[in-house]
Amino acid sequence: MRASRIPGMTSIDVRGLTKRYGPRTVVDDLSFTVSAGQVTGFLGPNGAGKSTTMRMIVGLAAPSAGSVTIAGRRYRDLPVPLTQVGALLDAGAVHGGRTAYHHLLALAASNGLPRRRVAEVLVRTGMEGVAGRRAGEFSLGMRQRLGIAATLLGDPRVLIFDEPVNGLDPEGIRWIRDFMRSLAREGRAVLVSSHLMSEMAQTADHLVVIGRGRLIADTGMSEFMRANGEGTVLVRTADPAAFAQRLSTAGATVREGSESSLVVSGMTGEQIGKLAAYHGVALSELSPQRASLEDVFMELTSDSLDYQGATA
Ligand SMILES: Nc1ncnc2c1ncn2[C@@H]1O[C@H](COP(=O)(O)OP(=O)(O)OP(=O)(O)O)[C@@H](O)[C@H]1O
Fold first, then answer.
1. What is the CATH number of the domain that holds 17?
2. DSSP string of 102-147?
3. ipTM reported for the complex, 2 dp
4. SS3 letters across 32-58
5. Which residue range or ranges hold the ABC transporter domain (predicted)?
6. Tally of domains in the chain
7. How far is the CA of 297 from the centre of ligand 1 (A)?
């Protein structure tokens, strides 16, 4: 018993979780929590053990050691699991010959969920118009939506998505990103995996980074940004030399970017904007450079990539 843990606040609790396949330890003493009302990004290079961890959370693989609980209970002790946790682990796993409606209806029926939920989740995911079409005819984006609709059938407080934007076009990516944010706003806990930092930067509130099955970072997104991604801000203005002088005087480090832009570090975009306003300088661009986050992630996980290369 942990007296400090407030019931309902921590939705997934992973403790010392370990998975061995023969001599290989693919998840190694992993501990982290996933909180309600947040999108938690689960990041790691390919093969880091994200899918295996997610499979253990929902009881599809047995831990070699350690434990996972959802709202304080092990998955197998949940009376109607779909009402507690929805998981999209493999979007391809849809019966192609069934219509979207019948796919969802079969799932609802086999889990003892009311029929009306089918119509509700179809509306929620914007799929009413295609409910009568066979899933086999769907684009990847629509199959993903159908998979997400299925996770919502039991109206669970905890949602788990494994690489949901993989292979989607920008519109599909944006839809999923917005959808996850809206689920978190409703107070649900959302755990979403990715091997790309850039996908998380705009989606996640919290980050859990793993490599070689081990925890590398467990941190708030903004904290992570401040510590690692502070990087640079790209600035464009009619007289870059004069503004560069102002920036340097204010304590920033400035270098010349492409096409007469300025690459500024040591000041936030907001501070630069205020400085420009103070001196009456018009800026035509002021953009924080997030690319460095991807670099930080690569740097963080480079050991695990080396390991992968060596064993491949
Ligand atoms: N059933 C299994 N038997 C043996 N090894 C397995 C099994 N399932 C996964 N692995 C191995 O465990 C490691 C972690 O795989 P996992 O799929 O969890 O990683 P991941 O981080 O989700 O990566 P990806 O994004 O590529 O799926 C991989 O090296 C994989 O080959």
1. 3.40.50.300
2. HHHHHHHHHTT--THHHHHHHHHTT-GGGTTSBGGG--HHHHHHHH
3. 0.94
4. EEEECCEEEEEECCCCCCHHHHHHHHC
5. 12-237
6. 2
7. 20
